[in-house]
Design brief:
Distance between the termini: 22 Å
Strand order of the largest sheet: 2-1-3
Shape: elongated
Order of helices and strands: EEHEEHEHHEH
Number of strands: 6
Strand content: 25-35%
Number of helices: 5
Mean pLDDT: 80
Radius of gyration: 23 Å
Structural class: alpha+beta
Low-confidence stretches: none
Amino acid sequence: MRYGSLRANVLGLEAALADGTLLDLGRRPLRKDNTGLDLKQLFIGSEGTLGIIVDATLRVRPVPRRCVVAVACDSEAQALTTTGALRREAQATWDGRGRVDISAIEYIDAASLRLVDDLTRERAGVRRLPPDAVILIAQIESTESSDAALERL
């Protein structure tokens, strides 16, 4: 979800038609061009029926540092507070004020945790939590080379 569909990351194509003609699609200096039909998108969606894509220019994004964190919360209220803090941090990043992006948050409620047997819990190295505890699992991405932003969060 964070990076959009592949279609949105295709900057240009070169396609060969059945008669051998090569079409240059979308390799213009402008990102937005509304001078007519977007043949590039038509070729992407045709899955090879209109011609064969022989060259493609794709948007390349830097690989973020990733960290997956499991947070045990004593109650659902604490989980909501923590989720709110993570969402505010993600919003700050989206607004250009932050360095850490939260790309996924998973929630495991107390009823589901009670279904995990002791052997599974021991193998995973997880201690038994209080009866009303919930777990949040967050995937955090950072563009910083240091861990300062992750430690602050």
